[in-house]
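hi support,

uploading two proteins for the ticket. first:
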Amino acid sequence: MKDDYILNINNLKVSIDDKQVLQGIDLSVKKGEVHAIMGPNGSGKSTLAYSLMGHPSYELDSGDIELDSESIVDLEPHEKAQKGLFLAFQYPMEIPGLQMESFLRSAVSSIKGSEETKDVFDFHRKVLKEMRYLGIDESFADRYVNDGFSGGEKKRAEVLQMLLLQPKLAVMDETDSGLDIDAIKVVAKGVNRLKEKGMSILIITHYQRILDYIHPDRVSVLSGGKILKTAGPELAKELEKTGYKDFVPKKSSLDVKF
């Protein structure tokens, strides 16, 4: 049934600089599901992530995106966030001068309402509780957002945001990029906790290794701007062994990475 799905993408076509990258995406994610999107470089994976959030550089040619049975294609990014959509960036932005806890408080207030952060001391306790769960030192709260952070620290910061915001659907764009195994385990710990609470996750990755810790319910292959196959978690294992040779179009117009 339609109500069982948190995300429904129908015939989504998206262009960048007049070049069509997504060529008719059909994809559904069930409530409480971890759905992995895998594919080679230049397949359109990151384009899909940014298009879902409404990045202005990505032009929607046609199609529809429904979040919890409601079309969100005409909403601004902050409105999509308020509806429960969260995007974890591959390369999070640095914001010198803005402390992490201040940033988190502003984000939670904007998305969940000011009542959630009205008691400053109570919110501080919540932040520290989640930081301890992720094994993050308390000094992290006073540091500037992503300023001088390692790759692993940036990903921890995003997982911390998710734990506090508790979105309906988190889209994670190549979260494992540049991370060592210890950092991947921390990310997985936070994501798995949110899954236990019923959150849905759309995780975009090249490699199977993060899926050893965040276990997908379904896996889809995106190549040439289209979803070519969807199956169970065994598909990720298969791709790790065979690669994407069976899914690369013979004449692909996607010769650059998006």
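and the second one:
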Amino acid sequence: MRVIYQHIFRCDSAEPFLASVGFARIMGACIAVITVAMLGWLPILAQSNAADSSQRPRARELGIAPGVLSPGPLNTITDVEGVRVGQVTIWEGDSVRTGVTAILTHEGNPYQSRVPAGFFQGNGYGKFAGSTQIIELGELETPIVLTNTLSIAQGMEGIISWTLAQAGNENVRSVNAVVGETNDGFLNDIRGRHVLASHVVEAISNATSGPVQEGSVGAGTGTVSFGWKGGIGTSSRRLPTSLGGYTVGVLVQTNYGGILQIDGVPVGEELGQYYLKQELDRGDADGSIIVIIATDAPLSDRNLTRMASRAMLAIGRSGSPATNGSGDYALAFSTALEVRREGNLKSSNGLANANISPLFEAVVEATEESIYNALFKATSVKGANGTVEALSIEEVIRVFRKYGRDVNFLR
């Protein structure tokens, strides 16, 4: 827009212009041109972030595929049947870069048909509303919402409003709203608290199965990872039939740091951007990551807690030391009908302990790939306090090839 403005109003010979009786008409024409230009460009500017994201690859499109298990059809958390994701991105002016990401556990009423769940805290420098009741009762009764640190209250308000409005909940007097957060205060005017309860209701109401948008969207709009733009990422793994054929799906909100490694390659060191580079702790590895894990395997809340804990292994693989100022949380739930909790009906205890090790592997692999997808799909964002650049795909390819890894953009 600035280029258009300068081009229209640039006039090296101002005096003839001012002397002209047609000056007013020329100015009117200029204003008309600017108006048309603005009307034409504004939709493009509004869509540019999404368009840029569509041009960036996911990890697997580069040939980076952590682990030995195969992904589901979409390689997203929604590969677990019934799971839906909804997102609202709030992008206003020069300083509002935030949003909401909602995860729904199944198609029905989550309050009346509760799923078993487990929660794990890796490092607790953060806020995760509703976690104590999950730990105590081992179940979820609402959608899961992710947003920014100072919008936890609005997240809870939106969940409560949505839950109370559901058919069958007319007599509900207690709602355990589950809201996770990371701090997007560098790119976002976080003190302005621009997330509203209505945004949360919108994200929940618009949640769908199918592909999930990744990168600088929803709760990942203003996040930062390893000094580059972070965001929302997702992936899945499907066990072979001989091991039960179960699916594990993961979604992450990344806003943390350390010394970036991608599938074992020291990308952060090679690109000269990493924690303790100058032998000083400047807090640049602080931040948070939220990991949401879904599975159709019939598991007890105890074994879901064990699954959630394995996500921390993937966070470590990505290069995080889980610093003092990092909030590292994982929540896992099962959609299997045989472990669903409805009314006072007794549910199954699910798979035996001896059968869940392959699910642990699936969690680690899907979490690791989700983290990479968040980085690769994120776009550069200019916000409240400056610009955070996206990780260069070309530089990642160069580093991988230096280490004998033949990767390329395979799309």
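thanks. also noticed: Residues 1-48 have pLDDT under 50 and may be disordered.
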